[in-house]
Design goal:
about 30% strand; alpha+beta; 6 helices; about 25% helix; globular; seven-stranded mixed sheet
Length: about 180
């Protein structure tokens, strides 16, 4: 499947998405009724719109700077997956406290008819390029609360993008906390 050329731009007006639909009712409802208020309520958030060459909006995402809190069990799991991390100088200052700066993916949505064209993985690659962006305060991880219900789950997508679960899935929650190294 051909990957479209994508043009990512930082925006401030959620009204741009009035004709955008990802096909997930709950997310579409949020985008059209509450995203604007969310952006205004969290001035540290960054809202991006993704267009194709025809200037059609094919995706959107919202990022924020945050922190990932890893308890001893999580740090042990991390060390089993990546034993070389303990010696990484850029992590040393954070290792003892277990508090690591992150880029938090607040929301990400791809137009339903554009799924399967690697747009989501392109967005993750773009987000990874923001590691040196001063707005995000030297992040070490990317984190997300991945949407996960009986009718739809973003967890397999994030797993393909090298995210792993930071918790055991709560059967009463509709998200799963996940993270990955930059």
């Amino acid at each position: 499947m051909e990957r479209p050329n994508l043009h990512i731009s930082l925006q401030t007006d959620a009204a741009l998405l009035s004709e955008f639909y990802c096909g997930q009712d709950e997310m579409d409802e949020f985008i059209h009724t509450r995203l604007g208020a969310f952006i205004k309520s969290y001035p540290t958030s960054r809202f991006y719109v993704v267009k194709d060459d025809a200037q059609t909006i094919v995706a959107m995402f919202v990022l924020n700077s945050g922190h990932l809190y890893l308890d001893e069990d999580c740090k042990d799991d991390l060390m089993m997956k990546f034993p070389e991390l303990k010696g990484v100088d850029s992590l040393r200052d954070y290792w003892e406290s277990g508090v690591f700066p992150t880029v938090e993916i607040e929301y990400i949505a791809v137009r339903k008819d554009m799924r399967g064209k690697h747009i989501g993985s392109t967005l993750i690659h773009y987000i990874r390029s923001l590691q040196s962006d001063k707005h995000f305060h030297n992040p070490r991880f990317i984190s997300v609360s991945a949407y996960c219900t009986s009718s739809y789950s973003a967890v397999p997508f994030y797993q393909k993008c090298n995210f792993w679960a930071a918790e055991i899935k709560n059967p009463y929650a509709n998200t799963l906390r996940m993270y990955r190294l930059f």
